[in-house]
Design brief:
Layout: H1 5-30, H2 39-44, H3 48-74, H4 78-87, H5 100-103, H6 115-118, H7 120-126, H8 130-139, H9 145-152, H10 157-187, H11 189-196
Helix pairs in contact: 1-3, 1-4, 3-4, 3-10, 7-10, 8-9, 8-10, 10-11
InterPro entries: CARD, CARD8/ASC/NALP1_CARD, DAPIN, DEATH-like_dom_sf, NLRP_Inflammasome
Pfam family, one: PYRIN
GO biological process, one term: inflammatory response
């Protein structure tokens, strides 16, 4: 019998092991984008089955896939994220062995790629005033003081921008990308306009 999204979630959480499961739950708890998961609900998830149930019940089968991928990447479990993408048919040309009843729920949540995703490489290369952006994001509570300090400590604007995009902005989802877009509008409107007209 073909596996459902919940089965794939359970397999992924089993692969994570205890330590990474703890990190996954912590990131899930810190997630600011709606729907948010209550700490009490996360604490009740004692094993992979409970955690898979929690994800599907909170985000639905459709929403649980991108949220899981986002958190796996945020905790540096890239191998599990890639395998989960492939198993749920989220990679182009990947074989999907998800059961028919949940297959229709695997439509990508955003057909229109976000400006930040579309211009990720150019932003890493061309944004120089990263500290001003970090100030804005900290004010709006998109990033924590710890993240702010860690990224500011990096040596070059390119490394700072890469860390920002691949870490907290990716974790915050669309809300984080919107906040970064607005921060760019305030700090580097010429670059923004240039990229928008390409």
């Amino acid at each position: 019998m073909a596996k459902t999204i919940k089965d794939h979630l359970q397999d992924t959480f089993d692969d994570l092991g205890e330590e990474n499961q703890k990190k996954f739950k912590s990131k899930l708890c810190d997630r600011k984008t709606e729907p948010r998961v209550r700490r009490a609900a996360i604490e009740k998830a004692n094993d992979s089955i409970d955690l898979a149930d929690l994800m599907v019940n909170t985000f639905t089968s459709t929403g649980a896939v991108p949220v899981t991928i986002e958190i796996l990447q945020a905790i540096c479990c890239n191998q599990q994220a890639t395998e989960f993408k492939e198993n749920t048919g989220q990679c182009p040309g990947a074989p999907s062995n998800v059961s028919p009843q949940s297959d229709h729920m695997l439509v990508s949540i955003s057909f229109i790629e976000h400006f930040i995703d579309r211009n990720r490489t150019k932003l890493i290369r061309r944004v120089h005033n990263v500290d001003a952006i970090l100030d804005e994001l900290l004010d709006k509570k998109v990033i924590t003081e710890e993240v702010y300090s860690n990224i500011r400590a990096e040596k070059t604007p390119q490394i700072k921008m890469r860390e920002l995009l691949m870490g907290p902005i990716k974790s915050a989802g669309t809300k984080g990308k919107d906040a970064l877009y607005n921060a760019l509008k305030d700090t580097d409107v010429c670059l923004l306009e240039d990229l928008e007209h390409q």
